[in-house]
Design a protein that fits this description.
The chain has about 270 residues and is α/β, with parallel strands linked by helices. It is about 40% helix and about 20% strand. Helix 6 runs parallel beside helix 7 and helix 7 crosses helix 8.
Length: about 270
């Protein structure tokens, strides 16, 4: 008789000053269709009412208070998720930023795909939740002549097998490239390792761009945006070198380096 695939799923939630969204985030996980879960919330020195909200759910979640904080949001996010991972026991690891939330069937749907032992990581698709308007944008992959890396989903849409998560944390903990966030690091490492990114074309995660988030300082085509994009190409080159892969010269990379040289770094 075939055994039902029913592994423990860990959801690691990273929170910093998201009291407004935290209840919805937590309840979207606790009321999942899939019941074999553990929920770990890492609070990153919040100064709002987050801890009071978390304590209301203390019988259902594990709360970790991160006492070490750097001036770089990217490092803080990685550290928070790693703290949660060290405490976790699940075979399948879900990441969730606390201003986002899951659809009710997300964990059931995603876990079913991990029945395939060749799958180590999956990116599902986001439902954009901006100003009370929910949008599903059609997913279309980029051309590699134009871009060096493929299109991928944000942090809360990423799920990994435990063994692969260990590997990802090792390379992502590098104290370099401080404008490069965890989702990009995971996606680039995965793309260069497996020569592809597995996109589950199902809209399972509600993604919100918090108006107070650090990403707001990188408005498209602003100075910070171009500088970060240049660092993204540097990160891609860095990981390519680790895999001994030739770093492709794309249109995007040429334009990015030109803008940085002429306008910002000259």
């Amino acid at each position: 008789m075939r055994t039902k695939y029913n592994p423990l799923a860990t959801i690691i939630i990273a929170n910093y000053n998201n009291e407004v969204y935290l209840k919805k985030c937590l309840e979207s996980v606790l009321y999942q269709q899939y019941k074999k879960i553990e929920v770990i919330v890492v609070d990153d020195c919040s100064s709002d009412n987050s801890l009071n909200i978390l304590n209301k759910y203390k019988n259902y979640i594990t709360i970790i208070k991160n006492k070490k904080k750097t001036k770089y949001g990217s490092y803080n996010q990685i550290n928070a998720y790693q703290l949660g991972f060290k405490k976790s026991k699940g075979k399948i690891i879900f990441f969730l930023d606390s201003d986002d939330h899951f659809s009710k069937k997300k964990i059931t749907t995603v876990v079913n795909f991990f029945k395939n032992k060749n799958i180590n990581i999956i990116f599902d698709l986001p439902i954009y939740d901006f100003k009370n308007k929910k949008m599903k944008k059609k997913f279309k992959q980029k051309l590699f002549i134009v871009s060096s890396w493929p299109r991928f989903s944000p942090q809360s849409c990423i799920t990994l097998r435990r063994s692969y998560a260990k590997e990802v944390f090792k390379v992502s903990k590098i104290k370099k490239f401080n404008t490069i966030w965890f989702d990009f690091r995971i996606a680039i490492y995965t793309f260069l390792k497996f020569k592809k990114i597995t996109i589950l074309k199902k809209y399972l995660t509600y993604y919100r761009q918090n108006p107070n988030s650090a990403s707001k300082q990188f408005k498209t085509f602003s100075k910070n945006w171009w500088i970060r994009r240049s660092e993204a190409h540097d990160y891609f080159s860095y990981i390519s070198e680790k895999f001994k892969i030739k770093d492709p010269l794309s249109v995007d990379k040429l334009i990015t380096k030109f803008f940085n040289y002429v306008f910002y770094l000259k």
